[in-house]
Amino acid sequence: MYAVGVDIGGTKIAAGVVDEDGTILAKTRRSTSPDDVASIDRAIAEVYEEFRGDYEIGAIGVAAAGFVSNDRTTVLFAPNIAWRDYPVGEKVRALIGEDVRVVVENDANAAGWGEFRFGSAKDATDMLMLTLGTGLGGAVVVDGRLVRGRWGVATEVGHMRVVPGGHYCGCGHQGCWEQYASGSALVRDARAAAVAMPDRAAALLALAGGDHDAITGPQVTSAAQAGDPLARDLFADLGRWVGEGAASVAALLDPELIVLGGGVADAGELLFPSVRAGFERELSARGHRPEARIVAAALGNDAGMVGAADLARVD
Amino acid sequence: MYAVGVDIGGTKIAAGVVDEDGTILAKTRRSTSPDDVASIDRAIAEVYEEFRGDYEIGAIGVAAAGFVSNDRTTVLFAPNIAWRDYPVGEKVRALIGEDVRVVVENDANAAGWGEFRFGSAKDATDMLMLTLGTGLGGAVVVDGRLVRGRWGVATEVGHMRVVPGGHYCGCGHQGCWEQYASGSALVRDARAAAVAMPDRAAALLALAGGDHDAITGPQVTSAAQAGDPLARDLFADLGRWVGEGAASVAALLDPELIVLGGGVADAGELLFPSVRAGFERELSARGHRPEARIVAAALGNDAGMVGAADLARVD
Amino acid sequence: MYAVGVDIGGTKIAAGVVDEDGTILAKTRRSTSPDDVASIDRAIAEVYEEFRGDYEIGAIGVAAAGFVSNDRTTVLFAPNIAWRDYPVGEKVRALIGEDVRVVVENDANAAGWGEFRFGSAKDATDMLMLTLGTGLGGAVVVDGRLVRGRWGVATEVGHMRVVPGGHYCGCGHQGCWEQYASGSALVRDARAAAVAMPDRAAALLALAGGDHDAITGPQVTSAAQAGDPLARDLFADLGRWVGEGAASVAALLDPELIVLGGGVADAGELLFPSVRAGFERELSARGHRPEARIVAAALGNDAGMVGAADLARVD
Amino acid sequence: MYAVGVDIGGTKIAAGVVDEDGTILAKTRRSTSPDDVASIDRAIAEVYEEFRGDYEIGAIGVAAAGFVSNDRTTVLFAPNIAWRDYPVGEKVRALIGEDVRVVVENDANAAGWGEFRFGSAKDATDMLMLTLGTGLGGAVVVDGRLVRGRWGVATEVGHMRVVPGGHYCGCGHQGCWEQYASGSALVRDARAAAVAMPDRAAALLALAGGDHDAITGPQVTSAAQAGDPLARDLFADLGRWVGEGAASVAALLDPELIVLGGGVADAGELLFPSVRAGFERELSARGHRPEARIVAAALGNDAGMVGAADLARVD
User: CB contact, 8 Å: A198 with chain D?
Assistant: First the structure.
């Protein structure tokens, strides 16, 4: 059975027809408005119409950045799109006019499920996925099942507290993991280093035209790839926080695999060695237990689409 | 079907016949030696013999403080008993001489399962149990299933790191949760307060004969119950760490219920208000989500026996 | 002998004739431009001309926010005024056309000296003054002598590190004391509390028109004075950081008096009890040593003017 | 004028005749008992008798580990010797039977003064000395004068708090600098590393006979000198804490020279580079100010004797 996976972004959706092996057979896109939620419903209906002529579609899976109701039909709250208790499934079905199954899933969960079923974790039973983008998201699979939590809001990994009294987070709390393990943290630290240690930050400042507030994530990556010691240290620090935090999650959940995705994880060897070193240094009961492997995500931006499609089909 | 639940302590075992409703129909005890693991096998076989005349026993569940193999037959490692890759199930069956099912389970998992099935969480589907004793243990149930992890060593909650560079733990790491949320932490903090603030610690010092190193947990409890401000603050601090750490776990797992057990939790109202306040203050996305309730365990010391028996039967 | 004390602000100067008892006999003001440092020289010369007809002036003391050279003639660097290695003394003398003594002093040092000689610390020999404004400044007197340091840049108390890896400071470092003990810290914490705990912050949010980013320091003070629990807690936290940090300075310098000045210190009883509690709790070797008293500054905004005049006169 | 300098240890005293250039002309020792304070008085009187035949002695300076009264005649409290408000000067004079000047000084102050007058800081006016032994002591000279504080208990540098909620100290507080920057801290961290990372600690464990609790400071030094990566990291961490803490003191006092003494400082190049790196990284307003140099103490164990003699003479 084919399913359509839809990945909802801020100003566009990406959709694809996905088969039972996780292969994307066709892809398309539509522009949408984050303030006009009906525009999103229409776009989903349109892509369904576009695909149904060529493929027999059994279900639509929608990956959305937000809290999703337990029955996976409604977005309860989304930070960047105007969904508030919005029954996406019902709305889309009404536009389509037939009884196709529409399942909504948190986007990080969908991406994690994609990796679990068809990507880096396809041979695993217990996985922690961490998505390092602007913030820090993730997904957890325990014994083959996606963890959604009692009310569907599990796996807010980025808001686990790792430093009491630490950096303030946009959520109003202090010391959230994503303040230490995300692209935003990388840029903030780079800018501060440029103020405190302008000599050491000369390469970064040159890339940013001399203005520490203009330093960007891609500049840090570029400097690090060119061997700049400060930029490399910034990635190593970031990696350390990823790995050390992952060790705490591993103490709780004992996963066999930790998958790192998101744009920051593309830094690859700038990041992974320090992630592994931080994880090993902080893992409880080392030597008395097997250790999770830490690997890169395999599906890139398609993970959400593929995972959403599969979740719509299999459960 | 009846099952025998066996709770293995350092120098004795407690065993009981448990029915399918979690009711203990009979109880007994045997002395054992932690250095002579065969003495534990014999004691288990003896209690089985004692019970089998009066009850039809279908399975034996053994709750053991240690890492247990995935197939739940073998203790891989125990900190306080000389088990090293020790096949408890096979040894006991050999002594009994018949093919009764023997299932070994981590003791915190067994106690958590007892509370989940028959105690404070019997109406819940997703639970975090925290056991506040000398150290900090726990158990997690997700969507009705006990989380054991890929290699059976999940739910080492006490070794999640809550303070980078914090107090050293016996495990060699720093900042483990149990260094802030356990009876040992309470006593350590009480003693330090008595050194730094002898005036404020006058009541505690009086109970300890004037020697700060002689302050004990029961003395702190007693002083707190009598209204001593320092002792009450010590419990409030402890509760705060329990609640704040639980908020991080809730960000990850979204449980509906947090159950507090163990001897320290008996402090009741000295502890629970600050646990709840700490949890609420640190819970991510408050107001956009339902919140877990925080309740006391109901089964006391029987939880492990009841849970082990049930786990032996049902899975 | 009379001396003129001049307090340099961002857009104006305040000047006064000060006698040897620290009494201000006359006061005046001039507007200036922070980008036109000559405008400041001219304003100082003008106020001198204004006063000299009525008073016999022996010296001019200039209090300036910035690093001052060892010989107290030159501002090496100022964050908010365009002084860079600027010989204020020489420039003013050239305008005046006579050989009056012109002494430049760091403004926090001048204010501290004013309090030491004529204000709250006039009977003390060893003082720590902390000025709680937007940031955290201070002054130290050891055995009757103002501590300027080897290169004149001592008493940057606000940039002592109190939390490794703590809040970022405008200086590029992390965990500077002024990120925890200043008016800016108070407002930042109030805004974050309003995001994380909107219910608890209802009173503050009402004052700020519902926008957490619009919360101001005076609103927090006003809410605290009206008894709002959150606002009172915010002041108590601030006071705790002031007192705990002061305990570290006291371990180093053993002052007899700690004087709190600056706008935030006007909060008085909202602040002082928690400052004292924090100081007492963290003071090393309590019980084996006398303890510094913690008092409010007495001279208000005149402290800098009076202190600068006195420093110009007495050396 | 010659003076006798006496360095009081736990079970012996060392004394010497010191000239005005800080040269030791003669040395001797006596055994004493820490519980019998009169034995110390007698030993001081004896060494004076021994020296007076050959040298014209004008004063006796006594360096004592403890709090000393403002008039420098009395030890108020000592942690390791049974002095409690004990008038050492008067007692010694009574034994000697003549009116020689006897001046008592805190031992860290005496050693710091020795370095300031005749050792590494002899060309400086403003010095911070840090003595890295079992604990962390120090001395401060501001503008050529030793800082004793209002009540003589200044420069308890080891008990400045550098980590809120950090490691417990014997003083009952948490996060004292000496818990991070001392020989005890080095050993504690080495032992913990051996528990958490036995593979990485193989060299250290081999030196300690396989028992992590048997690891000593000299073993860590020896392993570090032989290039062991863990031992080198432990020294680097220690150095970092020394340097970062020194940066906070420098923000307060602006010294021109930081002198490192004590047994741990003998580690030399294992320690100093990371001290300097930590200092530079955390120093406030770098680039806008000259920076203190960081150098090794020059006088070794004689510093206290020489300094005490000089302090007895000059003031």
Answer: yes
The minimal CB distance from B172 to the residues D163, D171, D195 is found for D195
Q: Give the model's pLDDT for residue D286.
A: 81
Residue from D70, D179, A133 nearest C290 by CA: D70
Residues A40 and A151 in one domain: no
Q: What residue ranges in D145-186 does DSSP mark as E strands?
A: 145-146
- For B195, the closest chain D residue by CA position comes to D172
Task: Give me C144's structure tokens.
Answer: 């009757």
Q: What is the CA radius of gyration of chain B?
A: 20
Beta bridge partners of D102: D60
Nearest Cα to Cα of residue A130 among A181, A164, A170? A181
Q: What is the DSSP letter of B161?
A: B
- Say if the Cβ atoms of A167 and C168 lie within 8 Å: yes
Query: Cβ of B162 under 8 Å from any chain A Cβ?
Result: yes
pTM for the full model? 0.92
Same domain for D275 and D131: yes
Strands (DSSP E) contained in A69-126 are 75-77, 84-86, 101-106
Average pLDDT score, chain A: 95
Query: Pairing state of beta strands A127-132 and A257-261?
Result: parallel
**Interchain contact C292–D (C-beta under 8 A):** yes
Query: Which CATH number do you get for residue B103?
Result: 3.30.420.40
* pLDDT of amino acid D289: 84
- Cβ(C77)–Cβ(D288) below 8 Å: yes
Rounded Cα distance between C91 and A72, Å, is 75
| Measured distance CA(A60)–CA(A89) in Å, rounded | 9
Per-residue pLDDT at C315 exceeds 70: no
Residue C70 has pLDDT above 90, yes or no: no
Closest-CA distance, A285 to chain D, in angstroms, reads 8
With CB atoms and an 8 Å threshold, state whether B286 touches C197: yes
Strands (E), chain D: 2-8, 12-18, 24-31, 57-64, 67-68, 75-77, 84-86, 101-106, 127-132, 136-142, 145-146, 257-261, 293-296
Of B76, B252, B290, nearest to A160 by CB-CB distance is B252
Out of B76, B151, B252, the one facing A154 most closely (by C-beta) is B252
CA A217, chain centre distance (Å):
17
B126 Cβ under 8 Å from any chain A Cβ: yes
B195 Cβ under 8 Å from any chain C Cβ: no
Is the separation of the CB atoms in A88 and A75 below 8 Å?
yes
ipTM of the complex: 0.95
| Rounded distance between C-alpha atoms, residue D261 and residue D296, angstroms | 6
Axis crossing angle, helix C183-196 with helix C217-225, rounded to the nearest 10? 70
As a whole-number percent, the residues of chain A with pLDDT over 70 amount to: 99
Domain count, chain C: 2
Q: How many angstroms away from the CA of B185 is the closest CA of chain D? A: 12
Are residues C281 and B164, on separate chains, in Cβ contact within 8 Å?
no
The single residue listed with the structure tokens 């980590």 is D163
B118 located within any domain? no
Tokens found for residue A94: 């009404």
Residues spanned by the domain of D247: 123-297
Q: Are B95 and B274 in contact (CB under 8 A)?
A: no
Which residues in chain B touch residue D168, judged by CB atoms under 8 angstroms apart?
167, 188, 192
Q: Is the same domain home to A68 and A148?
A: no
Residues D135 and D76 in one domain: no
C175/C65 same-domain check: no
Same domain, D289 and D169: yes
Q: Contacts of residue D76 in chain C, CB cutoff 8 Å?
A: 288
pLDDT at D138: 96
Q: How many percent of chain D have pLDDT more than 70? A: 99
Co-location of A30 and A14 in the same domain: yes
Q: What percent of chain C has pLDDT over 90?
A: 90
Nearest CA-CA partner of B104 in B140, B154, B141, B63: B63
In chain B, residues with a C-beta closer than 8 Å to the C-beta of D171 are 195-196
Looking at the structure, do residues C223 and C167 belong to the same domain, yes or no?
A: yes
